[in-house]
Design brief:
The protein is mainly beta. It folds into 2 domains: 49 residues, no CATH class; 80 residues, OB fold (Dihydrolipoamide Acetyltransferase, E2P). Strand 1 and strand 2 form a beta hairpin. This is ChsH2 C-terminal OB-fold domain-containing protein. It holds the Pfam family OB_ChsH2_C. InterPro entries: ChsH2_C, NA-bd_OB-fold, Thioester_dehydratase-like.
């Protein structure tokens, strides 16, 4: 029997599927592409085969800026799972993109005491060291 400890567990990585591949490929290119539904006139996230509410088969992949506002967050002082034990404190967040949808993510390069709901945040592309995947994180927008 194999015993796993937090030190021997690697973080779980997303597994792109044919449906989600355009999103992950765009992140590797340092771009953000999500689906847009002409029948709804709205951007859609998470990737799906049909538009919500209309069930139209009209979803297109379009590039968005990725800029947004901090919609919600929590500071996790304990790891959410054993795989994250070495991460220390994490700021888990929901960002609302300027284009509309919300995105679950992690805030990096930030002091939790300085975070405010509604503050502007910018995307940060993080290549995962243990896999061929780029993750999308966010940080507070630089002041002008």
């Amino acid at each position: 029997m194999t015993t796993y400890t937090p030190e021997t567990l690697s973080r779980p990585l997303p597994v792109p599927t044919p449906l989600t591949r355009p999103f992950w490929d765009a992140l590797a290119e340092r771009k953000i592409r999500i689906q847009y539904s002409p029948s709804l006139g709205e951007y859609i996230f998470y990737p799906r085969p049909l538009a919500p509410r209309t069930l139209a088969d009209d979803l297109e992949w379009r590039e968005i800026s990725g800029a947004g506002t901090l919609y919600s967050y929590t500071v996790a002082t304990r790891p959410p799972a054993a795989h994250f034990a070495s991460a220390g404190q994490m700021i888990l967040a929901i960002v609302q993109w300027d284009e509309g949808p919300k995105f679950s993510t992690e805030i990096i390069n930030a002091d939790p005491a300085q975070l405010q709901i509604g503050m502007r945040v910018s995307p940060v592309f993080c290549d995962h060291p243990e896999g061929d995947i780029t993750m999308l994180r966010y940080e507070p927008e630089a002041s002008s």
